[in-house]
């Protein structure tokens, strides 16, 4: 079930075909299953997008959470082949419905292990090595995302399609 959902999403991403609803028997039932599908998807996409190098955090404001109908932020993967330096030119044909968002990216000096939770702002700040002005590249890869539900959006990396990083600013 998890792998079947990941394969369906991977196929749509590779072909740049807008994703319709997943077959009912493989739709992630909840956010936890959505993340399981996401991890399987990452393994399937690695030959095309490279290694996982970080994460994006989406749906961080109350307005967006209400709009998308999810009560908290969620995450998606960022991969080495879709992290670009400032000045890059990317063809629109590489995306389904491309968009951009202004962001601040952080590079960590060390990984934050789940065993270190609960995290505090101070604890996380100590792990930051540098900040980058960033443009998040988002891709609305769906026929109608509003009908898919948060677990499916999470499974597909929550609109993540890469980023463009400006010059690092050390912490």
TrEMBL record:
A GO MF label: 2-oxopent-4-enoate hydratase activity
Q: Output the SUPFAM superfamilies linked to this UniProt entry.
A: FAH
Query: Can you list the GO cellular component terms from the UniProt entry?
Result: cytoplasm
Q: Which InterPro entries match?
A: Fumarylacetoacetase_C_sf, Hydratase-Decarb/MhpD_sf
Superkingdom, taxonomy of origin? Eukaryota
Q: What is this protein called?
A: Uncharacterized protein
């Amino acid at each position: 079930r998890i792998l079947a959902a990941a394969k369906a999403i991977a196929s749509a991403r590779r072909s740049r075909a807008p994703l319709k609803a997943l077959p009912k028997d493989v739709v992630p039932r909840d956010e936890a299953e959505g993340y399981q599908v996401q991890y399987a998807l990452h393994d399937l996409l690695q030959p095309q997008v490279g290694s996982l190098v970080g994460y994006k955090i989406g749906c961080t404001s109350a307005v967006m959470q209400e709009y998308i109908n999810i009560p908290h932020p969620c995450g998606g993967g960022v991969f080495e082949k879709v992290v670009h330096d400032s000045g890059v030119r990317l063809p629109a044909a590489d995306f389904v419905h491309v968009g951009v968002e202004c962001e601040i990216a952080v590079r960590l000096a060390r990984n934050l292990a789940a065993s270190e939770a609960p995290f505090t702002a101070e604890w996380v700040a100590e792990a930051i090595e540098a900040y980058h002005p960033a443009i998040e590249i988002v891709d609305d890869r769906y026929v109608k995302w509003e009908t898919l539900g948060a677990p499916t959006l999470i499974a597909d990396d929550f609109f993540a399609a890469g980023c463009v990083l400006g010059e690092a600013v050390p912490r």
